[in-house]
Please model this.
Amino acid sequence: MTIDLTPDEAAARIADLATQIAQANEDYHAKDAPRISDADYDALKRELAALEAAFPDLKPADSPSDLVGAAPAEGFGKVVHRQRMMSLENAFSDNDVTDFVARIRSFLNLSAEAPLRFTTEPKIDGLSLSLRYENRALLQAATRGDGTVGENVTANARTISDIPKTLPADAPAILEVRGEVYMTHADFARLNETGPRSFANPRNAAAGSLRQIDPAITASRPLRFFAYAWGEISVPLAETQSGAVARLADFGFATNPLMQTCDDPRQMLSAWTGIEQQRATLGYDIDGVVYKVDDLSYQARLGFRSTTPRWALAHKFPAELAWTRLEAIDIQVGRTGALSPVARLAPVTVGGVVVSNATLHNEDYIAGRDSNGAQIRDTDIRVGDWVQVYRAGDVIPKVSAVDQSRRTNPDPYRFPDHCPACGAEAIREPGDSVRRCTGGLACPAQAVEKLKHFVSRAAFDIEGLGAKQIEMFFADDILPIREPADIFTLAERDGRNLARLKNRDGFGERSAEKLFAAIEERRSVPLARLIFALGIRHVGEVAAATLARHYGDLPAMIGALDAAAPAAERHIAADEAVTAERAAAAAQGRRARIAETRDAVWSDPPLPAAARIAWDDLTNINSIGAVLAQSLVTAFHQPAERAVIDRVIAQLDVRSAEAAPAQDSPIAGQTVVFTGTLEKMTRAEAKARAEAMGAKVAGSVSAKTDLVVAGPGAGSKAKKAEELGIRIIDEDEWLAIAAT
Model:
């Protein structure tokens, strides 16, 4: 995609996309109740990836690009996967597939004539499941969860007839079989006719059925399982992907009969077309075709990115369409004050899915343009319009077109400029695609959402104090919770009240005592959880953990953020000056003096040295960057927000961060730079290997660099390393290290 955004505009759009994707992940993986289509989700991910590639310094530390799935749901034990369960890179065109094959050949340094075989198989639209067998007996079953930690659904998985309880004698002693739990169309229809509730689609039905607290309910549901991969294994199954899957079939697992091997992109695309043509008659839902490198030794060399294997690709099918009437546009207010429009639709069935609402993204989308003002549709969207919605796979929705010939409403939709929850002005900052309420802590919608975030599983995770309880206490006039500190004074305040919590509807003496005990248990909290729980814009779990490890303890972090405040203000001023310079240069037909303008603002008047040091230290933390740093400093510097933070900190015992465990590798924790030409290993493979060994790979040499790998043609980087006294090795020495 073509990107024509300023850094400020890109930062705002990246933040907007990250919020939308995080919510979509939660809806799909944790709640089994997706609210946007696969195509919508894929488009958001593609746009985010393109922006992060164009502006790498703006990539959030907890970017959805680096995450898989969502955290495990409550009600199940947790299972830590021995090998992480990954997601797949997506393709949407023939060119994407051709590029994928070309990247594989380049990475492996294979010529165009060298044999390179791939497997192709349908991409099942179900719920990922990992089955662990030890001594050939089913020991444990776990959902994917967030890729690292899943839900223990062993008792439920044992009720699925496609899953063997024991394996034959020739199976490995340890084998993790991975695949997809799904439901056929016929079984889905019967379940909806006879069951206690109606599911939107087979994928939701399968996920909801597997994730039942009572295994007897799962046993009553017609679930099926396709095996297609493996995790930890004591003995290799075969030398190829296709051979390994054939072995799984020999062990008694159901594998997909449409799987085949192909030798080039032409054959792969032909297989995709053939599977797509059979889609309507398969009897179960698929949303694309998966390609995998067949040679397992090549797979091992290719390795993984942060969330996806380099050796696999999911080629998605096109979206499906339907028309319906837009009955209303509702505005929802999130914890950051974002006003999000939601389309309320006359219910319509699209490929067996009943749809009654859709996201409208923001006011630009309603007006038919993107955030740059470019038209994306030939008309706006109005209440009463007949609109086309589309889906991919089995979830929906997105409004893609309007039938103007059936329009009856003469009035365009006016996006509110005041918050519907508190009445405060809702403004849209330059470069931001989202309008936000300025009410801050005075806005009940924001306050409630911030409190819900504070008690969420990845934050304080207080048993018995979830979203519903937060809404109840927030509205309560006798024992209110209006800010985080109120949670930790709840028991003390209850003791002073005549109307005790134990006497209220929905509570009893034991439940009240359990709630107070759960709150007290969470009074001691790790620094990373506290940082995440504060709900600071752009600061997610990964960034919170990174900040905690960097600063070590809370006083050190607060001191650094306070010291950095003057530099953060200077950063804002510099960005504003650059924006003005760009506009002036455009009007005068000259080249903008970006660097000079920014340097002038930073240098006059001179900043206190401590402020610049603190700011540079913050923004140089791996994956933090200026946008997140600005948000963090602002939250701690604004008087009202700081007062809220200080009040909750006063109630807590904040534990210092633990150092990250060292990996058993000679370069674990070191910063490595590759320069020059590598002749025996491609640069991409070398970088992947270094990162897999626990090193950080940098693109430039600095005083923080520990090791430089220099091949023929190494120039300025090697020279600078020599000047700094940094260890320099050649490719042979690197290969020896990489083999350890």
